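Exam revision sheet. Question 4 asks you to relate a sequence to its structure. Input first:
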Amino acid sequence: MIEKLKQLLNNSRSDYFNFPVSAVIVTDKGEYYGVNVETSSPTAGICAERNALYNAITNGIKKDEIKEIHVMSKTGVYPCFICRQALVDYCNDNVDIYIYDINKIVNKVKLKDLCNYSFDKGDLK
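Answer key, structure tokens:
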């Protein structure tokens, strides 16, 4: 997985903030990829995690089919809070998230542990 994530980093469009990130969503039906795409207006871009998640959704993947999420950056950072919300909304809370820097895995965490006390569909009642 490390080599695949490193290769994907080359596709990142991090022209403005020079912070490349790659992500792979592993499902029952295969893998779905994403990289971050920065723009001069930060909120107009997209993070790698959401790009990979939305790629999976676009290809018909359902919540129960997502098994793992792998994220790589130079320094091994965790998903931002916008990505965390999207993951909470479209993944089961027991999904494993693997965090990598460019050389190794840094940590493995369950979504429910990364996003405890999260806002979800149940809060919309």
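Marking note for examiners. The chain has a mean pLDDT of 94.
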